[in-house]
TrEMBL record:
Natural source organism: Oryzias latipes
Domain Protein kinase, chain residue ranges per copy: 48-307, 384-669
Domain of life: Eukaryota
Annotated keywords: ATP-binding, Kinase, Nucleotide-binding, Serine/threonine-protein kinase, Transferase
Composition bias type Polar residues, residue spans: 339-356
Pfam family, one: Pkinase
Binding site for ATP: K77
SMART domains associated with the record: S_TKc
Protein name, UniProt field: Protein kinase domain-containing protein
PANTHER family in the record: DUAL SPECIFICITY PROTEIN KINASE (PTHR24058), HOMEODOMAIN-INTERACTING PROTEIN KINASE 2 (PTHR24058:SF53)
Annotated region described as Disordered, given as residue ranges: 326-356
InterPro entries named in the record: Kinase-like_dom_sf, Prot_kinase_dom, Protein_kinase_ATP_BS, Ser/Thr_kinase_AS, Ser_Thr_dual-spec_kinase
An annotated Gene Ontology molecular function: protein serine/threonine kinase activity
Length: 682
């Protein structure tokens, strides 16, 4: 009933999203909070002066305070909702007989009512597990650093179990270090603690990433929900990310079913023995007893057996900090850079996540955006009335607008960064001589400056490939439906090649259907289009899921990077998911090597970034690049979709690929193209 697998990254940004959400909640807190910095709070055991606010917890704010007459600091949780404050105090009364020092529980000094707010005075602590992971850039935690945390948390949960109490809110930010350098931790926030016998079946407890299956399914509950949540905490620390998709309860259940039932279509979940080898290689240590014990722990299928053996696994003598500070390789746990998150594509496609979370656009609040719904935009060829905002694209928002004097709709991209708007218009100037209808490009009607925003007026289109995939529940696209998309995209790329232009942003949300029922598509968003001769080796282009190998390795580039990205689009449609792991560049290269083998030696030698993924063996007379250090070997099974594509391309190509498409392909792909064996499915 615990984790059977900690696989390659599923959620490029799961924890980061939680951090940002918390920051956003803090920023949105009303400024009318009744207690300010410098105020004095009169308690039962002294008077406290409010210092800086440390953040929020539950229904109140937490302030760092000093007590008049002493130098000690206290953390006072100030709850303006009196009933919530009383409820938290009553929950703390349940555990008042437990020794907070021995059992690693936060210490409460007093609770009092002051000017209609409840004040709970706690000992001051350091940072939470989540804060430390964030500060360390979410690098996976080594087992020897996890062990002392596990020892202390098992003690805390055992103490709660001894008095039949469930915490019900175990999570990364409710476990805090005593200070910055210590490995001593404390469990905090007992506001939702409850007697086990009072737990009601069907209650909505725990936040989703740490929510136990019995809570999601509405089954009888007991204190084991805390053990489940603690297991997720440990797995998250080990991985540097949540072990399951967790945007919705559906995602979580789907991920659990895939792992526990060992479904045939799970491609990104290696077995635990492989996970252990990867974890050992990462830290370059061989603590076999630890890893074997931890592996056995994760293999337990029931919470009962897990709870019975957990302490034995973590009972080894705690290592000193100086003995356990191994550096991880630079590529391991690497997070994608900000440029790779323009459209959050690694979160938008399933990647074994549930469909409910998928979105092709990022909707941002329009509170401070300079253009509002109902406003008029005065252009060169007419006046446009702003209707609904359809979403974001690039550096601006896209609005559905009407033109005064006609019934036609237009999609106007409103860019509040003038320089970005000018750059996109200049890129569109490169293709102005190409027929947008014949070559399947979005049509630009005009571009104008209005009140310090750039407005680009496009034809209105329907949904993107990503939107349709989402609407159809990410069911793999049949080849007969893929063929017309391929034909039109080959025509578009052929037209761009004819004028030596590279789009550089081919992906599933940049290809749109003309309308809901049509198979006619258009290529959009030319904001990053560039002349082929201006492409610089080593440039950081394309989002990771669609990034070509020559971009990743830092080799000379040409228009074939668009063909690679288009191949990924087709494979994604065929499969209903990305064909390779794509949380980081390292994952992508590893997947490619596992499937197709290593690139040619001369290409690796020429790559600017090859050393980030391969090791140069200089011990022989003929130095060569090796992938042994990173275990980039063909151990994994070839994904079914790629097997199908390879078979189709080799055995039934005449049936599936029309002559026109083949002819265009021959023009687009050079006979001596780089990574020929890696481009087979393209």
């Amino acid at each position: 009933h615990f984790i059977k697998s900690i696989g390659d990254s599923w959620l490029s940004a799961g924890i980061q999203e939680e951090v940002e959400a918390k920051r956003g909640d803090a920023m949105n807190k009303q400024t009318s909070f009744p207690v300010k910095t410098g105020h004095y709070l009169v308690g039962n055991e002294g008077i406290y002066k409010v210092g800086e606010f440390l953040g929020e917890g539950g229904f109140g704010k937490v302030a760092k305070c000093t007590k008049l007459g002493c130098q000690e600091f206290f953390a006072i949780k100030i709850v303006e909702h009196v009933e919530s404050g009383k409820k938290e105090f009553e929950a703390l009364e349940i555990i008042k007989d437990l020794d907070p020092v021995k059992n690693n529980l936060v210490k409460l000094y007093e609770c009092f009512l002051f000017e209609n707010v409840i004040c709970l005075v706690y000992e001051i602590l350091g940072e939470s597990l989540l804060d430390r992971m964030c500060r360390q850039d979410f690098v996976p935690t080594h087992l020897c650093k996890l062990r002392p945390i596990a020892q202390q948390m098992f003690q805390a949960l055992s103490a709660l179990k001894s008095i039949s109490v469930a915490h019900t809110d175990i999570k990364l930010d409710n476990i805090m270090y005593v200070d910055e350098e210590s490995s001593k931790i404390k469990l905090i926030d007992f506001g939702l603690a409850i007697k086990t016998k009072e737990m009601l079946t069907g209650s909505n407890i725990q936040v989703i990433p740490f929510r136990a299956p019995e809570v999601i399914l509405g089954l009888p509950m007991d204190e084991s929900v805390d053990m489940w949540a603690l297991g997720i905490v440990f797995a998250t620390m080990c991985r540097g990310d949540f072990p399951f998709p967790c945007g919705t309860e559906y995602e979580t259940i789907r991920g659990l079913v895939q792992i526990f039932e060992q479904l045939e279509n799970v491609n990104h979940v290696p077995n635990l023995d492989e996970m252990t080898e990867i974890h050992r290689e990462q830290f370059e240590l061989f603590d076999d007893d630890d890893h074997r014990a931890f592996n056995d722990l994760l293999k337990r299928e029931s919470k009962a057996s897990y709870a019975a053996t957990a302490k034995n696994v973590m009972r080894k003598t705690q290592l000193k900090v100086m003995e356990v500070d191994p550096p991880a390789p630079e590529h391991f746990g690497q997070r994608s850079d900000s440029e790779n998150n323009i459209s959050k594509l690694s979160e938008d496609l399933p990647n074994n996540q549930a469909k409910g979370k998928m979105s092709s656009t990022i909707y941002r609040q329009t509170t401070f955006f300079p253009v509002k719904t109902g406003q008029y935009l005065v252009g060169n060829e007419g006046i446009y009335k702003v209707g609904e905002f359809l979403g974001e694209e690039g550096f601006g928002q896209v609005a559905k607008c009407t033109k005064l004097g006609c019934q036609e709709f237009f999609a106007i991209k409103i860019v509040d960064d003038v320089e970005s708007g000018k750059k996109e218009f200049e890129a569109l100037e490169l293709i102005k001589d190409l027929d947008p209808v014949k070559n399947n490009f979005v049509k630009l009607y005009e571009c104008f400056l209005f009140e310090n925003v750039i407005c680009l007026v496009y034809e209105i289109l329907g949904e993107s490939l990503l939107d349709r995939m989402r609407r159809q529940d990410f069911v793999p696209t049949h080849l007969c439906k893929l063929r017309p998309v391929a034909q039109q995209m080959f025509q578009a790329l052929g037209a761009l090649k004819s004028i030596s232009v590279v789009h550089m942003e081919i992906r599933v949300d940049h290809i749109m259907y003309v309308d809901e029922e049509s198979s006619k598509i258009k290529l959009i968003d030319f904001g990053l289009a560039i002349k082929t001769k201006e492409m610089l080796t080593g440039s950081n282009i394309q989002v990771i899921p669609f990034r070509a190998p020559e971009v990743i390795l830092g080799l000379p580039m040409d228009e074939s990077v668009d063909m690679w990205a288009l191949g990924i689009v087709f494979a994604t449609m065929c499969r209903g998911d990305f064909p390779f792991p794509c949380g980081t560049e390292y994952e992508t290269i590893r997947g490619l090597v596992q499937i197709f083998g290593s690139p040619e030696q001369e290409l690796l030698t020429a790559g600017m970034y090859t050393e980030q993924f391969f090791t140069l063996d200089e011990g022989s007379s003929n130095p060569s690049w090796s992938d042994q250090h990173h275990q980039l070997t063909q151990k994994d099974t070839l994904p079914k979709m790629l097997t199908m594509l390879r078979a189709a391309s080799l055995t039934d190509s005449e049936k599936h690929i029309p002559p026109l498409v083949k002819a265009i392909c021959h023009k687009l792909v050079k006979k001596t193209t780089l990574f020929s064996k890696w481009r087979l499915f393209c």
